[in-house]
Amino acid sequence: MSSLVVDTNLSAMAANNALNATDSQMTKAITELSTGLSIQTAADGPAAYVQSQALQSQANGYQVAISNAQDGVSLVQTASGALNQISSILQTMNQLALSSANGATQDSTSLHANQQEFQALQNDINQIAATTSYGTTNLLNGSFSNQTLQVGAFDVSTQQINLAISAADANSLGVGSTGGAGASVQAVVGDQNLVFASGATSVSLTAAELMTVTEGNVTALVTVASGVTLTQAQFAATIDSQLSAIGIAATITSAGSLELYSTSGTAFSAVDSGATFIGTTAVAATAVTIATGVSVDTQSNAQAAISAVQSAISMVDSIEASVGAVQNQLQAIAANLTVGQQNLTAANSQLVDVNMAQEMTTFSTDQILMQTGTSMLAQAQQAPQLVLKLI
Q1: Terminus-to-terminus CA distance in the chain, angstroms?
Q2: Where are the domains of the chain?
Q3: In the CATH scheme, what is the homologous superfamily, with its name and number, of domain 50-174+300-343?
Q4: Cα(109)–Cα(115) distance, integer angstroms
Q5: Where are the beta strands (DSSP E) in the chain?
Q6: Could you give the 3-state DSSP secondary structure of residue 331?
Q7: Tens digit of pLDDT for each residue in 320-359?
Q8: pLDDT recorded at residue 281
Q9: CA nearest neighbour of 92 among 126, 120, 129, 127
Q10: Closest by alpha carbon to 84, among 136, 145, 132?
């Protein structure tokens, strides 16, 4: 079609369309060069944008998971340091027990000195167990159990670690001064050995009738409500309140024994009458005693303490081994997550990052086309003036 028309300048329209296309490409190139991204919105590539968002979310999740794993390492290192200190204390306690067990060379003064140090070390263990914490979370008092560490980007069990740290106070380790696992806590009444559960300082009574006590011609029946749980002090108070009328008192001694004694000085007998304690076994006995705690104040107690302390050392070693295994696991996970995050970031970069050299070449071409397009549009707009020469 001839361009020598006035109403419709097809050449100018063609030049303008080409110029608009070049301008759009140049604007896109400027945006990509200024941001470094070829995919900024879903309009730039829906599939690539969705895939990029997923990769970026996973990579960001890996970054947080790495931090979580490193925090977990710090937590278990805190617990491990405290457990090392407790282990060192137990080694000293073991030495004291072995020393006091050597009855041939120990007198009451040295035994008392050993016991004072032994008890101070028991208190030290309790203090460490009660105060070792990560932030406000206590680690060694038995409350740190079924804790979850998130070490992945997704809510799946394979990317979570469950962590529990056993209690490491003196009683839990069986070397406490008031009972504990390894200390035999028992009450012997008449012909019945009434034993507390290992580590317990209280007793659950399933029978209402506790015992029958006879003083002279007077007999008293000690009863409690069925199904209750009594501490040692409550156990003694229950007996004492019901026997005082016949001149018999019950008390917990400083050494932790439950003693019955006659306030009138006359003989009396105590016969088990159906009480049910945890783990009852029949033995021949005539005294009422609750033996509690681990001590080195006598040769016999020291000999028992040797086994208790050495057992506690093994327990702490086991706890430390468990904590150490978790630490190694967390460090391995953090290292793997670091590599994974690097690979995910590289994959996302391949999708969205612009090739600067290639895009700069395209931009230079668009600049030239922009200039020539503008020039050609100007020339096309002058073409209708040729009609004037025909007049």
Answers
A1: 21
A2: 1-35+360-391, 50-174+300-343, 186-292
A3: f41 fragment of flagellin, N-terminal domain (1.20.1330.10)
A4: 10
A5: 133-134, 137-138, 147-150, 160-163, 186-189, 192-195, 202-205, 209-215, 218-223, 228-231, 248-252, 258-262, 268-272, 281-282
A6: helix
A7: 999 999 999 999 999 999 999 999 988 988 888 787 888 7
A8: 33
A9: 120
A10: 132
Q: Minimal CA–CA distance to 203: which of 253, 168, 238, 248?
A: 238
d(CA 104, CA 129): 36
Q: Give 10 or 197, the one with higher predicted confidence.
A: 10
Q: How distant, in Å, are the alpha carbons of 107, 257, 292, 354 from that of 254?
A: 21, 7, 10, 81
Specify the pLDDT at position 33.
Answer: 81
Which of residues 327 and 283 earns the better pLDDT score?
327
How confident is the model over 110-128, as pLDDT tens digits? Answer: 999 999 999 999 999 999 9
In Å, how far from its chain's centre is CA 64? 17
Please report which confidence band the pLDDT of residue 199 belongs to, taking 50, 70 and 90 as the band edges. Answer: very low
- How would residue 215 be classed by pLDDT, with cut points 50, 70 and 90? low
**Could you tell me if 236 and 249 are in contact, meaning their C-beta atoms sit under 8 angstroms apart?**
no
Angle at 151 between CA 146 and CA 157, to 5 degrees: 60
Strand-pair category, 209-215 with 268-272? antiparallel
pTM: 0.59
Residue 331 and residue 33: Cα distance in Å, rounded?
Answer: 40
- b/e for 266-297, b at 16 or more Cβ within 10 A? eebebebbebebbeeeeeebeebbbbbbbbbb
Half-sphere exposure (Cβ direction) of 159: Cα atoms closer than 13 Å:
16
Q: What are the angstrom distances between the C-alpha of 166 and each of 169, 203, 305? A: 9, 23, 22
**In the block, which residue shows the tokens 């025909």?**
390
Residue 278 C-beta-side C-alpha neighbours within 13 Å: 16
Identify which of 316, 328, 313, 331 has the alpha carbon closest to the alpha carbon of residue 140: 316
∠ CA 210-214-218 to the nearest 5 degrees? 120
φ, ψ dihedrals at 284, nearest 5°: -90, 115
What does residue 323 show for φ and ψ, rounded to 5 degrees? -65, -40
DSSP letter assigned to residue 196? P
